[in-house]
Design brief:
- Helix content is 55%, strand content 6%.
- The radius of gyration is 19 Å and the shape is globular.
- The protein has 266 residues and is α+β, with helices and mostly antiparallel strands.
- It has two domains: 2-76, 3-Layer(aba) Sandwich (Glutaredoxin), CATH 3.40.30; 87-118 and 153-233, Glutathione S-transferase Yfyf (Class Pi), Chain A, domain 2, CATH 1.20.1050.
- Strands 2-1-3-4 form a four-stranded mixed β-sheet, with helices on one face.
- It binds glutathione.
- Glutathione (GSH) binds at residues 10-12, 34, 39, 52-54, 65-67.
Length: 266
């Protein structure tokens, strides 16, 4: 049995759902509403000591770290194989898996905190955010979270992260050109595509898709990704997407109890 502890609007979780969908695997949902700090509930730390999502539990054994989960699933369920046969192409795959984890994801965290998470104060209200943050055992981290969601977006940080993200996209353009496409590793669709595409989905919902607007190979590759049935099946449903530049908070906010796990649109 496969259980997935996940949050819908998380690029790391989207990556794992995409692998599961490409392989046609059934999984049992264990939803973790991270905006309510449910990843700090009793017991979750036994599955994932970092108390992050995703965590995959396969026949009772937890596997953590989204890219490692993706590789694990490709070994445990080899069909269809999501790693190229050719060693050179596999090196490109590993390079882009690392690029996502070490560079793209941290940039997206900065962008998302400033352009999305700050809307939670307006949507749910600071009182409720303060109440939820009580579940956070690390009081310094809880205070830092509350400070960041309650303050105005840090425009300098956003601009710096966006410009660094654009630099990485020019390298993706080069990689796609060198390999001849249609995928990051050339002819073979792979875990590289699966790791990087959810990042672009997030950047798109931050209304920053202009960052690859003049990069035709990246734009065509991302359009191909969005056409895949597995991508459409795994992407966050609109009601579970966080508020952001393309999804306004309802004027006057929402009742957090009524909203449940979702982020109702304005
Ligand atoms: N390197 C980890 C990163 C996991 C991660 O940061 N997950 C985010 C969601 S995308 C999370 O759990 N955030 C909640 C928090 O940091 O408190 C992975 O790839 O699984």
């Amino acid at each position: 049995m496969i259980e997935l502890h996940h949050f819908w609007d998380s690029p790391c979780c989207f990556k794992v759902r995409l692998v599961l969908a490409e392989k046609g695997l059934d999984w049992a949902e264990r939803y973790v509403a991270t905006h309510r700090f449910e990843h700090f509930r009793a017991g979750y730390g036994d599955l994932n000591r970092h108390r992050k999502v995703p965590t995959l539990v396969h026949d009772g054994t937890p596997v953590i770290q989204s890219s490692d989960i993706a590789l694990y699933l490709d070994e445990a369920f080899p069909e269809p194989r999501l790693q190229p046969e050719d060693a050179g192409a596999r090196a490109v795959m590993r390079e882009w898996i690392a690029e996502e984890g070490e560079y793209l994801f941290p940039l997206v965290v900065t962008l998302s905190f400033n352009l999305m998470m700050t809307l939670r104060a307006k949507g749910f209200g600071m009182d409720r955010l303060r109440e939820w943050s009580e579940r956070h055992p690390d009081r310094d981290r809880a205070r830092d979270y509350l400070r960041r969601v309650s303050g105005p977006p840090d425009r300098d940080a956003v601009d710096a992260a966006a410009s660094r993200f654009a630099w990485h996209m020019t390298h993706l353009e080069e990689t796609l050109g060198r390999g001849g496409g249609p995928w990051i590793c050339g002819a073979a669709y792979s875990l590289a595509d699966i790791c990087v595409a959810p990042i672009l989905d997030r950047v798109e919902s931050l209304d920053l898709d202009a960052l690859w607007g003049d990069l035709p190979a990246v734009a065509a590759w991302y359009a191909r990704m969005k056409d895949r049935p597995a991508f459409r099946k795994s992407m966050p449903p609109v009601e579970y997407r966080m508020w952001g530049p393309r999804k306004p908070v309802p004027p006057g906010g929402v009742d957090p109890d009524e909203a449940g796990d979702t982020f109702p649109a304005g």
